[in-house]
Amino acid sequence: MKKIYILSGLGADERVFKYLDFKDWDVTFINWIKPLTSESLTNYTKRISEQIKHENPILIGLSFGGIVAAELTKIIPVQKLILISSLKTRQEIPLIYRLAGKTNLHRLIPYSILKKDHFLNRWLFGVIRKNDKDLFQRVLADTDIDFLKWAINCIVKWSNSELHANLFHIHGTKDKLLPVRKSGEVIAIQDGGHLMVLDKAKQVSEALHKII
User: Fold this and answer.
1) Taking CA 31 as the corner, what is the angle to CA 168 and CA 180, rounded to the nearest 5 degrees?
2) Could you give the CA distance from residue 11 to residue 147 in angstroms, rounded to a whole number?
3) Class assignment of domain 3-211?
4) CA distances from 184 to 97, 179, 196 (A)
5) What confidence tens digit (pLDDT) does each residue in 98-112 have?
6) Cβ neighbourhood burial of 34 (10 Å; 0-12, 13-18, 19+)
């Protein structure tokens, strides 16, 4: 049975994967840990790698989890790297995010607003269905603001240019947070938003089964 480790999105957890079909695999969800003061992404990745107990696993990373998964491949052997609604390299980061990283404008974001369930957040993440809105609201409420600030800083300043030899990238055609036009070669999920693991779970599951 394939051993798979999964990293969820920024501040999220395994709840966002509740509709995906993992029944044929041995799956472990990696838990986010609290970053140390001014901790680098590299050091954080080394600490979180301690949760991986199997050799040569498959890694799946959603959104920010994909960035951390890509960093993990630099320190441990990985059979396959699968990104969902994420980024492969710095070149795929939208220009406005990169500019924010260079000027530190992202530090002016009122992070408390990002934790609230309102129309703009739902629109950005592509959350449409009533059940998904309820889950999204709970996930936002549980998100740690300090982790949120640290992770956003890591995203806008990410400098990766390396591609894993066995990398697969699944991305929605209507992702507003990370537009697909910036994402290079992808396995496209038609009309999928950033959180398409919820409302496009069947299509995402089918893509995963073809890859794995």
Assistant:
1) 30
2) 7
3) alpha beta
4) 17, 10, 18
5) 999 899 888 877 777
6) exposed
